[in-house]
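Hey, can you fold this?
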Amino acid sequence: MGFNDLTLNLSFMLVGHIERNFDIDLRFGNGGETLALSLLNGGEKVEVKTDRMAHLTGNIAVEFRCSGKLSGISTTEADYWAFVLNQNKTIIFIEVNQLKRIARGCFKEGLIKSGGDGHRSEMVLIPLIRLIK
């Protein structure tokens, strides 16, 4: 079997696989498109945070208290948070309950930092990789 024959056979195998699962792939893709449109068209409440350091540190900072009072993730009424990263070149959307679960885990690990004006804000540091696991 020559290179072209092998390529042709692999192509048929791949196309056959895609066609057999096309309805599943289509439903999955449509679900993602519906969510993205809802987020972008105001169907969900989205709180937007811009993180200047994430592209350098590999972490996002999520405020949970300021001046001794609950704030940020502790008091948000949003359905999703959007993190604007990489000098406005990347946006990550995450459902708030999922973000809270991840933040609690990082808090328990002691990934806490103070910052902001006068270092009055307490933040949990979340490694970016944990947002997609």
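Oh, and this one too while you're at it.
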Amino acid sequence: MYHIDLGFLSQFAAREAILTSICDIIRLATGRCLVARLTNRRKMSQETPDSKKAIKTFALASFLNDMGSDMIYPVWPLFVTTVLKANMAALGFIDGLGEAIVSLSQAASGFLSDKLKKRKIFIWLGYSCGAASRLGYAMSSAWQHLIPFKVLDRFGKIRSAPRDAIVADISTDRDRGRNFGLLRMMDNAGAFVGILITIALVDRLGYRLLFALAAIPSLVGTVLIILKIKEPKTEGKIFKGLALREIDGNLRLYIVLNAIFALGAFSYSFLLVYAKNAGFGVAFVPVLYLIYTAAAAVFSLPFGRLSDRIGRKAVLEMAYAFWALICLGIILGRSLPLIVVFFIFYGIHKAALEPVQKTLVTEICPEQFRASSLGAFQMIIGMCALPASALAGVLWESFGPAAPFLLSLLLTGCAGALLLFVRERKNVRGRR
């Protein structure tokens, strides 16, 4: 008869029980970690009700403000050159100065917004400046009188960097491009409505009364922001400012290439005057602006979504390509039907450029300095706008209408080549 060691069996059973318990604990912990990761991922990919409400409010305010702005823009170059008797150099100076003020105001508001940890006041104050400036345009009797009101109008862009910082903060990697595209789409939709109002009323009301009425939508947008937007909560860290060392080589390259492009991206006024000189009647010029705005409104949101899928750089290269086609077409020909196509391309170019341009800045800059980075970016781009439009006006007067487009074509090629070397965030690029 064999002797069985029961003590050994009991020790073996105890060890098995311990090992089983350890395995159960590991499986449970792993499962909980997996659930936590999936839950966090769902939270990161979903908007909250408050964020959706904020995006919709910003979109509506953008619609109203651009409706007021674009009651003026389609006839602005005609008002300046025919009613107030300015030449193309003066028109280029006024438009370029306005864009330079945009750059300074956005840089200042971005810095102060981060420093004071306040966003909302810059947004509603910016809309109110736009409304006040339009009343000034209505009262101007000489082109020189437009200058302070143009400065006030473009100073209203203090709203942009703080607003865009809020949008970037409440968005996720999956919907940030879409949200910026939505804002741009509503900008262009408001512009579309504003142009229709101008076409319908400019002959009946005249320029000045039309400009005064254009103040009303921006005042409504101001009230919307004050009543509907809550000041976002921020961490209580001490703000030290955006130092140059915070801007890495990748962001610097991106800023430089956009500055190069901006030196050739002169005011839309040159396209409208080119169309008028090519043979379009004064009454049809606002229709061309309407065509451009409609194209921008239709394509802004799709391009924003496309950038969420294939990456920001690919969409920006498309934007540069459409502008290059416009420049080539103007240099090589002057067909009236082709000019209509150019305005469609111009709308597509703006739809691809503007929302994606800002989105990429928010993704490659330090997160704690988003408003400052957006403001600094817009400052540099805007500072290039004054020499761009002023130089375009001088080239136009000295060498003919094709000269500024030839320069712009060369600068666009340089910007497109440099963009190839910019690095996108890996978790955004190629997202499906």
